[in-house]
Each structure stands twice: as structure tokens, then as C-alpha cells.
Amino acid sequence: MTAVKGKVYLVGAGPGDPGLITMRGVMVLGLADVVLYDALAHPALLQYARKDAELRNVGKRYGEESFSQEAINAELVSLALAGKIVARLKGGDPLLFARGAEEVETLASARIPFEIVPGIPSPTGAAAYAGISLTHRDLSSSVAFITGTESPGKERTAHDWSKLATATQTLCVIMGMKRLAEITTALIAHGRDPATPAAVVQWGSWSRQRVVEGSVADIAERAAAARIANPAVVVIGAVASLRASMKWFDQQPLFGRRIVVTRPEHQAEDMARQLRAKGAEAVVVPAITIVAPPEPARLDAALDVLGSYDLVAFTSANGVDCVFEALARLRRDARVFGGALVAAIGPGTEAALARRAIFADVLAAEFRGEGLAEAILAKLGSHPAPTGKRRRVLILRALTARDALPAALRASGVEVDIVAAYETKPAPIGALQALARDLEARTIDAVTFTSGSTVRELAHALAPRAKELLEGTIVAAIGPVTADVARDEGLRVDLVASEYTVAGLIDALERHFAAPPRP
């Protein structure tokens, strides 16, 4: 029986920043049964893979023990012959110094269907994020791309430096740090002006990006002094001097900061994206997972009679999501709200409702239970109840939550029902253990908390060393309620957002790191 052939997609991941992958690349990742990814593909890109896809790291490092190219080629063929759809995710562009052609040749020989999805090449991406234009109307009308890492089996270099040294106005050397002194010496020996500007860009477009500037004569020495290693791109030519006026990425307010996001996995990426836009490295370590409530039948029963309440209150975006998932399961829609008013605790919850075409009638002025209670009472007061009837409010929230909202409503004579729409559980321990190692190494700049449950679960996961491990980093809370939980867990809180939103929390971090250090 002939094996059913799958298909292999060679996908360019771009230079590093996960926002630089193409739309086609994202689409393909969502189709794949198996994703074979390189070490230089940003891990955030794996979020685009199917939840049931198999993810394999086959990254290679020059001079280190890793998967051989032959092994990767064989695996691509084997998986495709087994009928799998395979996404081969490669850093940069698959056909520029990425050995993609060898993989394609192997697939073609085995008659395996394939598609090549180009990516932004690492040299162009790194140069752009360093503020260097590889060509310029007045400075350079030609550019050459050169690999600095040739096959270890070669007896001598394939580069003819007598021609390359002055062939183009701009030279880009990719992965050339191990031989940079040798390369620059050869360039000078064959006619390149030693005073030609040069720049080395390490980890281009990543938050860990570093740039060293100099000239052909001294760039190798400067890079060595700065301990610059691969992955790096060397730009040689007058265009390297443009960085003085064109640099932008490393001027971002949170550039180079490693900031931990503890939100649940399905919400973490939105915050991580906002942090990356400010130049930070978002370290996503979900402290909690969101699961169905322990009594789903009680939630279903409440949803059947939503329209009988005067007002339905949501205290989180998670509550909104879980309620509408339950409605979909019950084959019900927004009509179940009937004439009930709808209240949201903050803009995130309001936005989650708006995505379902439910527009909140009540929004708390202060994004906490007390503020929502005040707003609800004001709204209900403007709509007097029929004589002899009490106002009825349904609160859909987490299984465990503060009682400030229902207590304030009941104290004012409102009849309140509380139904759990979801429950928070501790997240898998693996990522939390890795975070503990990073905290111990003092490589984390800030840990953010967006709810009391994220605080409690992270503190318990790091116990009994939570206070000690967090001593060397900034602890940031989205609001005073979350900050109080952190203090109750024995943690020091360094900053609290003045606006109790993710955007407000990021703004608080930006202000904190922009402030001059205390004497």
C-alpha cells in the first residue's frame, strides 16, 4: 500500500521580532500537524500553531552538538510520507544562508509536495532595527551578503576577498563573529579603506539586541571587547554611519527589559505584544489556568433566567468569555439577557462584552468591586423598582473572589445571586520552575500581576522562597486590590498602576524605568 503523502512548508520566521512573520506564515503554522522550528525562531510564534500540533525544536548551533542537517532532511521526508502537514519554521528567510535549498532538494528528490513561504531576511531586519539603511541614494547603490560561517569540511574559504573587498559599497556579513578579525584583515589587505564605518548587530530585532559601532580597522576588537557573539550581522560601508540619526528600536522606553507576564495563557499574548511594542522582552509565565466551574449545571440554570434579573454584573473578561462559551454550548445567544442591564468592572471586561455585541450599561469609575457597586446602585436608583419589589442582581464571577461587590449591594437592600462562571487553577509547574532559575540569576527586571489569583499561585509555586527570589526584581500590580494580595503573601510591591488596566500597568513600568535611580 502506497503511503499517503503530506506536505512540507518552509516558513521564514523573520529576524526575531514575532510581529515580523508574514500573514501566510501565520496561516501555515495554523495548518500544520508538526512544527519543526529553529533556535532563532521566536518562541512566541508557536502560539499560532494548532493546540494539538506537535512542536519540535531542531535548532542548530555552529560548533555545538545539535540536530544535523541530514537528520532534519530525513525527518521532513518521513513525516510527509506519514501523511503529515509539516511547517519547517526557519529564522530569517528559508533561502538566505538558512540551508532551505538543501531541504527543498531532498523533498523534491522524494517527490514530497512543498511550498516556500519567504520571510524577512535577518540582515535586512537587523539593519532596520539598528537604524541602518543597507542602501542609500548618496552612500550606497550596491550591497553584498556574505556568510561568515562556511561548511566545517571546507579546506579553505570560498570567498574571493580580492573581488569582494571593494565589489559593493555595502557588505553584510552574516554569522561571522568567530572569523571577524580574519575577515576585516582580508578586506583591508585587498583594498577596503580601514576607516570605512562598520557596525555589528547582535540579536537584531530582539529585545536583547546590541549594537557595536566602529570602523573596519577596529570593529573586530570592539566587538570582542563587548563580548558580542553570533547570532550577529556585520554591516560594513558608509551606511553604517546612518545609525546616529536613524536608530529607533533601542530608544524604546522599555528596551532590553525582561518583564514577566503572569496572566493566563489565552490572555498573556495581548500584554506581551504591548510590552514588545515598547522594546521589552515579554517572559510569558502563566500563573493560573481558567477552567470550568465545579458546578456547571448551576451556571446553566442561571443563564436560563438571565432576563429575570434587573442587572447582570461581570467582574472580569474571563467571566464574559466563559459565560458566552456556556451559552454557545447551550445553543443560546445574547437574547437571553432580555431587558436586564449589564455592568462591567472595567474597560477590559467592557471590551470583552462589546466583542459579543453587548454594550455595558454600567461601568465602574474605579475598577474594583467597591467602584462597581457604587455605579450599579446609582444606575438602579435612577430606575425605581415597582412598589414592594427588591432589585435583583446576578454576579457572574470566579469561584473564589472578593465579596466587596455583593456585600455593598446587599447592604443597600439589593437581592444578590452569585454564580461561578469559571474557576482558577495553578498553571503547570514547568515554566514556573524556569522562572525561579531566572529570578535567582537576577535576569528578570519586573514581574507583573494582573489579579490576586496570579499573585497567590505564583507565590505558592515559588514557596518557601518567593520573597527571597522576588527581592531582586520589580513587583508591579495592576491595582490596589492585587497589591494588597501581594502584601498578604509577604511580597514587597514596588509599583501600582494608577489606571487599573494592562495599558495602565505598562505605563507605570515605563515611568518607573524612565525615572533616575534614587541616590
Explained architecture:
There is one protein chain. With 519 residues, this protein is an alpha/beta fold. It folds into four domains: 114 residues, Cobalt-precorrin-4 Transmethylase, domain 1 (3-Layer(aba) Sandwich), CATH 3.40.1010; 128 residues, 2-Layer Sandwich (Methyltransferase, Cobalt-precorrin-4 Transmethylase, Domain 2); 118 residues, Rossmann fold (3-Layer(aba) Sandwich); 133 residues, Rossmann fold (3-Layer(aba) Sandwich), CATH 3.40.50.10090. Helices cover 35% and strands 20% of the residues. It has a six-stranded mixed beta sheet with strand order 13-18-17-14-15-16, with helices on both faces. Strand 20, helix 18 and strand 21 form a beta-alpha-beta unit. The mean pLDDT is 92.
Q: Please give the count of helices.
A: 19
CATH domain fold name of the largest domain: Rossmann fold
How many domains? The number is 4
Report how far the terminal alpha carbons are from each other: 77 Å
Give me the Rg, rounded: 28 Å
| Main β sheet profile | 6 strands, mixed
The pLDDT mean sits at 92
Percent of sequence in beta strands: 15-25%
Low-confidence stretches: none
Record the strand order, biggest sheet: 13-18-17-14-15-16
Shape: elongated
